[in-house]
Amino acid sequence: MRDIGVGLLGLGNVGAGVVRLLYENATAIEARLGARLVIRGVAVRDLQKTRLAEVDASLLCTDPMELATRDGIDIVCELIGGEEFARDVVLAAIAANKQIVTANKALLAVHGEALYTAAEAKGVDLYYEAAVCGGIPIIRALREGLASDRVESITGIVNGTSNFITSAMASGGSSFEEILATAQREGYAEADPTLDVSGGDAAHKLAILAMLCFGTRVQLDAIHVEGIETLAEIDYAMAKKHGYVIKSLAMAKRLDAGIELRVHPAMVPQSWLLADVPDTKNAVYVDSYALGSSMYYGAGAGMMPTAMSVVSDLIEIGRNICANATGSMPLRSQRQLPATAVVPMSALRSHYYLRFSVEDRPGTLGKLTTILGEHRVSIANLSQRPMAEDTELIAVVALTHEAIEGDVQAALSSIADAGLSLAPPQLIRIAS
Ligand SMILES: NC(=O)c1ccc[n+]([C@@H]2O[C@H](COP(=O)([O-])OP(=O)(O)OC[C@H]3O[C@@H](n4cnc5c(N)ncnc54)[C@H](OP(=O)(O)O)[C@@H]3O)[C@@H](O)[C@H]2O)c1
Q: Is 122 among the residues known to form the active site?
């Protein structure tokens, strides 16, 4: 039986899971692959650290670049994270004719174009199932399962930390800060959770998904991104009252004028499957021409789910190596990717939840609704409630009929200019 040499860059959470799967499931993997995946080296920063998986000390080294280009390594598995250094190591590995597996969404979202180009030029495989939604095989579903279909839109909950926070906020009783601290204590959130709560991590994943769905180049800065930090307890309570659940969604949609790309909190109808995605779980809802709707659900992160995706990629590349067919899978779903126009947010049509913090004075409500009307924003439901016991402010909440985002933003500016809302208004789009 043939041996396939694997060089593991990183032995942290995911790396340790990969080692465990390769050792514990070796017999089953050999049977499925018809070859042995043999770890020939593991690069780490600190040789003395206690690890979550045991490897022979002779395999450890501290020079990822040397390991990535070493003879006897067929597949380089990049699990160190980060952008520039990971890019340099992966490019060096590609230049040395190594096949690549990575779990690094930031690397692909920022430097994907350079890596795909280099891999295609060399005819090597570059697989990245674990980079989006950890253990959920969404890349394979889009690239292979739906290869004959035409994806019209995807809507995903692709960041477990945000979903944990919005789910806990919806239950009430704790503040954003308290829930974030719990997420960090439980190991769901990074020590620096900025990328998670700001929507940046979800944007990295959406860039990869949209490229696969629409066969187009996606620039990260073309994605409209909003985080969940400004959502208040009252927004969650009002969502519930009106039959919604607030979720941070990553959305991409094919339109006549181009594609729509956005990551932001949204009011999701309670009847939707996405409304029921709990805690740190991820889900991607796909609407496609032939299949119709389909949903992919599961663990979006964690040691073993993520490692499972990484090892599946190793097995698939192993098959390609055995069949002398590496480099045969188009990396970007089609070889020449046109850049498609991204439709600006101002052209978006949606229903909106708008919350204003106003003084409890006669006439304020009338002025607010007049300004909204002047900007063609018509109100479907209007309610008000005290903001908090210790303030004189009241929250005015308007649910609108469908409106154009540019009109809504212009109305909010006019309301700000008129000094009507004493705090920045809250705008949450209603998913439909
Ligand atoms: N954790 C998840 O649930 C998850 C899910 C999906 C995708 N991912 C992605 O998977 C990748 C790995 O994540 P992780 O959670 O396993 O990270 P991690 O626990 O921080 O592990 C990173 C590993 O890389 C090693 N490393 C970092 N820089 C290095 C350098 N310059 N030279 C040598 N070794 C270096 C570290 O060595 P030391 O241990 O010696 O410090 C560590 O073993 C990231 O791209 C992440 O975004 C993670």
A: no
430: which 2 tokens?
Answer: 């209603």
Q: How far is ligand 1, taken at its centre, from the CA of residue 61, in Å?
A: 15
Architecture in CATH of 138-298: 2-Layer Sandwich (3.30)
347-430: CATH homologous superfamily?
ACT domain (3.30.70.260)
Residue type at position 121: A
The string of DSSP codes covering 206-239 is HHHHHHHHH-----GGGSEE--STT--HHHHHHH
Ligand 1 binding pocket mutation candidate from 45, 101, 312 (most atoms within 8 A of CB): 45
Give the pLDDT confidence of 81-131 residue by residue, as tens digits.
999 999 999 999 999 999 999 999 999 989 998 999 999 999 999 999 999
Q: Which of 98, 105, 122, 205 is catalytic?
A: 205
Which residue type occupies 366?
Answer: G
Average pLDDT over residues 3-18: 97
Domain segments of the chain as ranges: 2-135+303-322, 138-298, 347-430
Q: Do β-strands 403-404 and 349-359 pair in parallel, antiparallel, or remain unpaired?
A: antiparallel
**Dihedral, CA of residue 368, residue 372, residue 374 and residue 375, to nearest 10:** 150
The 10s digit of each residue's pLDDT in 242-277 is 999 999 999 999 999 899 999 999 999 999 999 999
Pocket test for ligand 1, best of 9, 44, 192 (most atoms within 8 A of CB): 44
Residue with tokens 């570059």: 126
